[in-house]
Every structure is written in C-alpha cells, then in structure tokens.
Amino acid sequence: MAKQATYSFKAFQAEYPNDDACLFKLMEVQHGGTDIVCPECQKRSKFHLMSKRKAFACQHCGHHIHPCANTIFHKSSTKLTHWFFAMYLMTTTRHGVPAKEIQRQTGVTYKTAWRMCHQLRELMAEADDASPLAGHIEMDETVIGGRPRNRLPQGQNKKGHTGPNKTVLFGMVERGGRVRTRVVPNVQMGTLHPHIVENVAKGSKVSTDELKSYGFLPYAGYEHARVAHAKKEFARGDVHVNSIEGFWSRLKVSIKGTHVSVSRQHLWKYAAEFSYRYNMRKTPEQMFERLISSV
C-alpha cells in the first residue's frame, strides 16, 4: 500500500515565504488569478500588486481589487504569513493546536491567537463536505465536561443532563467515511429528529445503542438496528457504534491533552475542527489547500 502524501513544512515555507505570496494565493482563490477581465473597464488586464496596500491594480484603469475583502483576513492587522502558518498547524497537527502555541510560534498576542484559532475553526466548519451522509451510519451521543460519576447510564434519557460544565454532543458517522457532530441541549427524540433527517440520506442503514429516542428511525425511512450496551452487547455482526465511540475517545483525549477544557459556547467549533481533519484523513495533503480555497 502506497504511503499517503503529506504537506510538509518545508513545502509550506517554499510556497508561502512572505505576505506577497499569500496575497497572490488569495487573489487566485477569490478572483482566478492576476490575468483577468477587469470588473471596472471590462478589459483583459494584468493586475499588479500594489506596494503599500494589500491590493492589486488594473494595468489599464487602475481599478483596485482587494483579495482579503469578505474573508477572515479582512481588516486584520495580523500578517498573512501568521494566518497561513496557523492554518498549516491546525490542518497538519493530529490533536489540534492551542492558541498559546500559535502565540509562541508567531509572536502575536494571546488574544489575537485565540481569535485566529476560533475563526479558522469556523472556516473548517464551512469547508467541510455538507452533503448528506449515506450508507451504513452509526449514531451516538456523548457528554463533554463534568464528572464521570454524574453521567447517566447508557440508554437513559439525558433530558436535563447538562449541568453548568456539561454539554451533550450528538454524532453521526459513515462506516469508513465522514463524521458530523452537533451540540444539542438534550437527546430527546424531538431534538435529534431534525438533525438526523437533515444530515442522513433516507434509506441508509443506521446502527445505534438502545436509547429510546432513536425509535422513530424505521418510520422515517431508515433501516435501524440496535446494540444493547446495558446487556454488555457491543457488536452483533455489523451492528455496532464502535466507529463513533472511537471518534468520541480521540476528541476527548485531544481536548483534555491540548486544550485542557473548552466552553459550551465554543464546543461546536472544536468539534467541527476535529470533524474536518477526520473527514480528510485519507487525503491529508489536501487539508490546507481546501481550507484556503474556502475563504
């Protein structure tokens, strides 16, 4: 089996050695390059990089194009090389990167690094494949934060099971494919139903645990099978939720080891970051390029 390609730091440095190189990349992503039809004079023009602005000017009429407009870089005083480096770290580091590390590596303030990381996580959520999950889907719910002894046993309804430091995450994963997560207030049927219908194609085979909230699945057009964790049944043929539980395990270990803890308000961003990397695990060399192309 051929070894998967990776986007090395040496290749990254060679491609984006300075802010100008980053700006040319944004011009390519936003407008198709520098040899384009000017939107002002309607002539085919070679746009030239301006010396004192993050902009390109038309060679005929002098019309300015600002590649950073309508992106997360708009009106940001932070160097583009710092932004691109933060993107590189977040797409190539398996367990994520804390804002403190971005601060140390780039020299920006912690407040700036924290803001950059959150904006990049939001970008990852937008860049991820939004098409419906299909095939054999596993569904499960987990709790982030709080003490393990305060968590309810498997199969019980988690209504109200979200104390000050507890947040419920609901997850759906294609067997061998993509994962999708949602922060939910509880795991009642009325809460999970719209997320499932929106994100899972009808006719898919769905494996879950014995939570009663999944009882509507056969009536909603899904082939449904359960495993009874309360009875120590963790797999029955191809019916199990081991894939999504494995994702939960990696997510929790990474959050604890890298970020220590995360707030309920921002948890969806961290989950989106880990989902993005998980979904592109088979093409790691494309993670950075896809994120840049999503600005």
UniProtKB/TrEMBL annotation:
Which Pfam family is an annotated match for this chain, by its short name?
Answer: Zn_ribbon_IS1595
The protein's matches in InterPro entries, at most eight in alphabetical order, are given as: IS1016-like_transposase, Tnp_ISXO2-like, Transposase_Zn_ribbon
Region (Disordered) residue spans: 145-167
- In this protein, which residues make up the domain named ISXO2-like transposase? 132-279
| SMART domains named in the record | DDE_Tnp_IS1595
| Domain of life, source organism | Bacteria
Name of this protein: ISSpo3, transposase
Q: Which organism is it from?
A: Hyphomicrobium denitrificans 1NES1
